[in-house]
Amino acid sequence: MRVVLVGAPGAGKGTQAKYIAAHYNIPPISTGDIFRANIAERTQLGKAAKRYMDVGELVPDEVTIGIVRDRIVKDDAVHGFLLDGFPRTVAQAEALGQMLAELGTGLDVVLELQVDDEEVIRRLSGRRTCRSCGHVWHVEFDPPAIEGVCDQCGGALFQRDDDLPETIRRRFEVYFEQTEPLIGYYTDKNLLRSITADGSVEQITERAIDALELSTPS
Ligand code: AP5
User: Fold this and answer.
1) Which pLDDT tens digit goes with each residue over 17-27?
2) Whole domain around residue 96: which residue ranges?
């Protein structure tokens, strides 16, 4: 199965990607995570991406498309993948369509997570990430037992630079200007399915899997 997850910053894409991908035994591929790993390793790509991410802008298409092109041909993605955070512009969507056509395949479904603005702001401002294992916590909705310490590995938790209020505002503007047009783009291709992404993480995973089951051949 080849799935794209789309939704506003903080809609819960990364959280859901893990569970949905595990259910279908496909790799979750997050362009945001790939950039953050490169920033942590201080690679050239990381340095280039950081300039854009820190101010809430998109990394240029030519950089991002190349990364996805290389990633989806890896062995673990040959039979399917779940893309989280890509595509984010119509140009990226067109490039993805072209890449998949060259591989003789196509997308099965684009799943949109819909959450109201107030909820996503609460989710983003309380998000904390483990510096060692990358696990994502929330200070209110999913707190670790000891504040600032990861329950899974004991690593230190940090707040993403782009989760500061000023940058969150810009990420939303960018989402509405550049990413929301994908909703119409994929509706026209009859690939879009939307679910409400409020409630518990487990409830949303169940809703997502129900929507995917209805959208894909068994
Ligand atoms: P990216 O990492 O993709 O960020 P995003 O799309 O803004 O999404 P987030 O990671 O902020 O949120 P999410 O929806 O994954 O929510 P999460 O599950 O963490 O991209 C970051 C940057 O990289 C971009 O701004 C851009 O610069 C660059 N970039 C990436 N891809 C690019 C591309 N294709 N092109 C160009 N540039 C690109 O959840 C948020 C919080 O809520 C967590 O704390 C979680 O625990 C909590 N939570 C989740 N679900 C629930 C729930 N049901 N109830 C309560 N709390 C919940």
Assistant:
1) 999 999 999 99
2) 2-115+164-215
